[in-house]
User: Fold these one by one.
Assistant:
Number 1:
Amino acid sequence: MREVLRSAAAVFRKDLRAELRTRYAVSSILLFALASVALVSFALRGEALTPRQHAALVWVVVFFAAATGLARVFVQEADAGTELLLRQAAPPEAVWLGKLAFNAALLAAVEAVVFPVYSGLMYAAVERPWELGAVAALGAVAISGCTTILGAMVARARSRASVFALTALPILLPALLLLVQASAPAFGAGGAAGGGREAAMAVVSYTGILMVLSWLLFPAVWEE
């Protein structure tokens, strides 16, 4: 296990260095997210929304923004022809864990920009910022836990972006609905604190199931 963790850290550092050089994934995800928030803001023109509607909108933006860039960690391996080298350099579990950590860190960084911008443009008062931050971190892990293995599966597909989004949405829909419920109290949904905690725990459970299944299935997907 120690060797797997060392190899996963090496995969994470490799992807981080590549992203710092090109900034492709973070630019595409952030640009899509900010453009979506700006479009929604102009379309609604300051119209008052309920806390649950704010929570739903921001997670819709985060999900589709993630769908534009999180598959990049495997697409770049396919485009550069480095898949075989990576297979020889690290075990499948380390590849999955390293790329999962990179995707989660990338999405968390994007959320750190998107959530405050959304709050400002949409006049969405965040009454419990620390609670929203915790749910956002949980959402980054949940979305990354699903999209990492799907990225490996669709990396060779021709229409990668559309295939990736279409396959990720049905799997992540339960988690997204629960994330909306968990985020609503932070936006001021009255009397929903207990429900928010229960929804967050349900997201943890659902994410755990996705992680275990991905851990078991990834070697077959990666070595196919």
Note: The longest helix spans residues 92-121.
Number 2:
Amino acid sequence: MTGPNPYLFVVGAARSGTTLLQRMLDAHPMLAVVNETYWLPRKYRERTGLTRDGLVTPALFPLLLHSPKFERMGLDEDDLRRIAGGAPSRYPEFVARLFDEYARRQGKQLAGDKTPGYVRRVAQLHELWPEARFVHIIRDPRDVCLSLLDWSGGERTVGQFGTWHLDRAVSAALYWRYCVALGREAGETLGTGLYFETRYEHLITATETELGRLCQFLNIPFHSAMQSYHVGRTRAKPGRSSKAQWLPPTCGLRDWRTQIAPDRCASIEVAIGELMHELGYPPGGSRAGPRLLDQVDEVRSKFTASLRADDRPIPRGW
């Protein structure tokens, strides 16, 4: 089996388990999944280093080499020139060759990418690589909020929507809702042949079953190496993140039931309860009083105003 590459994109709200899933997929002997490119749609949107028609010029090479995440592909300027070839190529074709090369260097046939933020760029990525498959991982939003609030990058990720200073928990919840809703809407357009949803909770509690479903979607045989991605890499150490420790699938790393105060949990559920219900996540049982309801309304209003001011797409029913 061969490409076309990039073969898949792993997407989802930040702190939803995208790294866990990337590591599982990358352990498959046929599939190499690079960890967070971020530059793929950006370079095409900027058109720097491309002609108006989207043809790659040598001016693109130093821009890629100076992109902080590009080094993860392990390619240098000579590689880029060789891959580009003599005749000008369109950006999607050039990137496909980069992923072909990345797969080859990993001793594999297929290559993909894991970048959480691409959950908001699915339509653009599909336009560039119409045969690529998308795997959207979703996690209980209360556990996502816990992780975002405890993460050094939480403010950078959620703060771009302008409400972090008002209420971090509600802002994190609205960020989750925004990402998940946009990803699912794009998935409806793509259909089941190109779009697959998985749950973090299923990967943890029914790992083999869920990976089997995922392999079926990707049209690759299931391989046990996906479950042993951590073997030889686990470095358990108190104080380090589960990601840094390369832990196996582990229940209870976050538990909103015991780690979120009832009033904060109530405000999160007010902000995103409809989508939570649609996805089958049960409510926590706490009720929000008038003050919390007003606070949620204020944050949601300013979050929405930020979306409009930045000309971002707004999901249905927002």
Note: The CA atoms of residues 138 and 270 lie 19 Å apart.
Number 3:
Amino acid sequence: MMHRLTGTEYDNTVRDLVGTNLSLARTFPSKELARGFDNNAFTLTFPAQLAESAYTASQQVAKRISSNLATFVPCASTPDQACARQFITSFGQEALRRPLAADEIEKLVAVFDIGNRRTFARGIELVVSSLTISAPFWYRMEFGDGQAVPSKPDMMRPTSFEMATRLSYLAWNSTPDSGLLSAAQQDELKTPEQIQAAFARLLTDPRAHEAVANFNDQWLQISRVAAVNKDPMLFPTWKSTMGEAMGRELAMFSEQIAWNSPRGFEDLFTSSASFANADLAAFYGATGATGATDTDFTAVTLDSAKRAGFFARAGFLALEGFNQTSPVRRAAFIRRRLLCQDPPPPPPNVRNTPIPPSASNTTKDRAIAHSSNPACLGCHALLDPVGFGLENYDAIGAYRTTENGLAVDGVGTILQSDIGDFKGAVELGQKFSVSVQAQECMAQQLYRFAYGRSPSEQRYASVTRLASVIKATGGNYPELLRTLVTLDEFLYRPKTPS
């Protein structure tokens, strides 16, 4: 089994190896997305453009170490081959997440000797570059311990070093630390109890918060919000900094929900607690945010009748539409990301461009007229009624009761779901918070992110189990994370690679 590092995992790994964030992945090609996530093992290829960027990055990592020999090579005061061999053995285990084989060490000693003809530092530099461009560095490789599990004859356990890697990239999106590597060296990552104890320690580290933030960001598409732009003629109050502020609010809100809410999933859709700077607080009509700059965010309580939960937050509502709301795109987000339903694509002969805004009617009126086309009706019947229920919020997410002087009713429905009818974003959030379909979708999305693959039919029992945890706990994030390391697909691997 092989799983290539993502850009985030690469940067985190390098940071934890060299002690500083070099942010080298920004030069890598665009992310390969599958179902909205960038870590699907089957889409993470290694094209030529990435190979070029990876080689350049490996040289920068190597230069960081060779320029700080006293920090990374304790024996550098005696700069000889014995010292290099010692460094190769220790750093090699950290970089490849396992002990190096004897022949691997000898090959790297030979690489060192080539560079050492110039200087000791150059020899170390070539070693580090060779390690960090290698396939075992870029890929999380697994071969297993080769022993069938008595109760599961088609399965075997990962080695303790492979389990250390599974644990660290799940909890931190990064490489194992010395504690994990030490436990692996003692072969103490074999039993479920050992694995759960190790994972519990990892969850107390701030890097676990980064990994969960990465999941929330990709699941809820939070990073997209910062780039939102609006028509300045139609929305003169919109400031260029508002998108970034709305995105930061969602990031801080989801962080609070994940780690400080006993019922995280439910509160995601119902809580009025949030964070704002002065501009965003004024936008919401909230008090308590006194920060003078765009980056000063403080805790605020929003109007529970208009702003409770994710669906009523400006970052979600402003995500689509330059000069008007987009009920279809708002609905598509909800269907895809939060109900795990893929609406059918529009027919190839149908115009797929927004209907121009008008000062004489409402967005809902224009959408109904458009969807009266029989070729459009099937798809729009699943989308339009969802978006109509959010029309009390305009394209920048400001609350409204009228559009062009005409009343906005905010009545919506989600067909083919257990949500049904709702009025407005707040009621939609309340129904989502207890929706079995929404719980199951979050379970699917967490599974995809945690394991870097979509749940197949035979693995759907694990999604069902995660969904049951959401239902029982209200979606407590730490409990969901702890459940992930008790599932068969985490504890074992097929004897025949899948």
Note: The CA atoms of residues 4 and 135 lie 9 Å apart.
